[in-house]
Amino acid sequence: MSPILYSLHNCPYAIRARFALVKAKQTVLIRSIKLNNKPSEMLKASPKGSVPVLLVPQNTVETNNLHTPYRVLEESLDIMLWALSHNDPSHLLQSGNVESLPAMLAIIDEFERKFVPALNAFACAKRYHENNQSDLRHHCEIELEKLESRLVKHAFLFSNQESLVDIALVPFLRKYARIDKQWFRNRPYPRLRAWLNGYIQSPEFSKVMKNYDLWLDTRKDEHFG
């Protein structure tokens, strides 16, 4: 059996999970969903109802007196680490240095705590034409300045070598850049723009962003990765 991935096309968390699967050259069966029409099979496996969800085949084990053939991974970062722990040809985990992974996870955690809520608030304000857009955008830009400073020091966000940090953050920065493209083009983040464009214009990212038919429409599993 192949792993099964429930995914939402433009969700940043789902994008980064798919990116890690591509980087790990891991093939899964992808089930594309809509949030307003979630498959019962997904909700049975992961009642919290958010994506991505990865079902990893395993020997049937007893869990709470139930037999299950799958291990359920419900967090995008867990999916990324699972994929790259099995195969990491680009050395994104930088396993040669035992201090690298904790340091990378700390950067990702800070970004998620500070930038992601600011991004979501700004996106909502922009969509509904609220009058506090400038203040909310400022909260985002505090974090963008930190990333630009990182890219002054080295070619990628963690070091001169591409890492887990890069593929974990790129979907959120793509989302921010798309909210107001002209504004982002004119901001003093030349290195961040070049870094982002290098990803989103790559054939690899095109593979990550391939569209799939909604699974509930066809009940047909398609291979991804």
TrEMBL record:
One Pfam family named in its UniProt record: GST_C_2
Lineage top rank: taxon: Bacteria
Domain GST C-terminal: 97-224
Location of the GST N-terminal domain: 1-91
InterPro entries with a match to the protein in the record: Glutathione-S-Trfase_C-like, Glutathione-S-Trfase_C_sf, Glutathione_S-Trfase, Glutathione_S-Trfase_N, GST_Omega/HSP26, Thioredoxin-like_sf
Protein name: Glutathione S-transferase
Source species: Vibrio ponticus
